């Protein structure tokens, strides 16, 4: 997977992209990340990348020429990559969206800043628009990091166990079940007996029920969007009677 990130602040990515899963994925050559400074495509000696908006109003707007030049330069090198922008008006990043993006050969992520980008960039180049949620960030860099992380962990060979991504929260529409490790008791709290029983079928059933319980309590809205078995529905009905 090829990630090209267009930003005014490339130094922001040095920490997150040099550690943990992203670092290992780069070392294995499973992903390739390139950072492109939009200011390098500015047409004046001060490398100006923003200007006051037409019509007045607070804030500044990212200029069309530097961003267009950056996009065209990167796209010419990677014509099959999808051009994505991060902004509050985009579709929300979910597990399903991350899975969809993980099937792409590559993506060019534009990090918005200030009050936004010149609208002509959207009309001419942008193919997808992604938002992290109903809140505002100082810029699209953190959103771009999130997209890269969410997509990378879904790529084959990235995680240590193929089962890891499949059992994460939202993969089957439910929140994940609780996890425990050694010691078996800590400050009077014990690991559930079923998890140390060695009975894999009982462990599977427990985990499913705990996922259902957690989702029912914290995110009941998610239950409307998944296919529940008869056993699932029976368990949820029992929870409602408690």
TrEMBL record:
Its EC number is 2.1.1.228. GO terms for molecular function: tRNA (guanine(37)-N1)-methyltransferase activity. It is found in: Cytoplasm. Gene3D superfamilies: 3.40.1280.10, tRNA(m1g37)methyltransferase, domain 2 (1.10.1270.20). One of its GO terms (biological process) is methylation. Keywords: Cytoplasm, Methyltransferase, S-adenosyl-L-methionine, Transferase, tRNA processing. Residues 1-223 form the tRNA methyltransferase TRMD/TRM10-type domain. Belongs to the RNA methyltransferase TrmD family. This is tRNA (guanine-N(1)-)-methyltransferase. It comes from Pelotalea chapellei.
